[in-house]
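Repro:
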Amino acid sequence: MIARLTGILADKTLDSVLLDVGGVGYQVSVSLNTLTVLPAVGHKAELFTHLHVREDAMQLFGFATPQERKAFELCIAVSGIGPRLAIGLLSGLDATGLFAAIANDDVARLRKVPGIGPKTAERLVLELRDKVPRGEGSAKPTTRTSASASSGRGGLFGDVQGALINLGYKPLDAERATEQAIKQQPEASIEVVVRTALRLLQRD
């Protein structure tokens, strides 16, 4: 069982990273919340991991904190929630927010995450209400290299909007949230802008 990886961040996209550990490259799927706290490519990074094994494949999922990994593992134990949906859920809510929504029976908040319908949200609350930890913190986002130089609609704007659409948000909602997020943080990296846009969508 691979529980943790430490190495050099060789590459990253909006849903995965390539971590070089002693010359071996590990492709690791991550949530947007984890992506926002990872360093720039070329720097040392650490991920807490979960190895998901199926009959036809093995896939690594990585998390910035043990709390986020715990949240992921609790989610995939719920009927009807696979690893991809769990990662999407943790892209829309960080571990603390997810735990709070479940503990408070906040089905409406869970339903704001794309792919989480009313029945799935109710199952999350019903099956995990007594299992989620209380009062645990999560990692804070850090601002890195500015992406304002590519903030036109063909650059940063298009990348952020595309990431939100890939997560299941409607194009018009994604466009509006992206525009607001860039106005709020014009000097931020793409990961930070995506997280800001997600927070705006969660408030709607």
